[in-house]
Amino acid sequence: MTLSVLDRMTLYSQQQYRQDVFSFYAETLEDVYKLFRHAAYRQFTILMHGKLTARDRRTVPACCVKLIREKFLSLSGQYTGFIPGEGPVF
């Protein structure tokens, strides 16, 4: 998990790809950490469940969420949390 989910270079390269595709760039340190958190959750989900469809959402275990939030803190202390999709939640 440390290399594939918490490693900054792994997440950075993934974010660079997504920025090229979606043209979203971080403007503040808070944005950078938010992008890293999102990338880490996405990496964990892909690692555990493979590629999911847009409607298929999976919860990330609390222990992993805790590690990701400790590594990439929200400077404001506010986190989005899990947002359920239209399909079933596993």
UniProtKB/TrEMBL annotation:
Location of the P2X purinoreceptor 7 intracellular domain: 5-82
InterPro entries named among the record's database cross-references: P2RX7_C
Pfam family of the protein (one): P2RX7_C
Protein name per the record: P2X purinoreceptor 7 intracellular domain-containing protein
Species per Swiss-Prot/TrEMBL record: Dreissena polymorpha
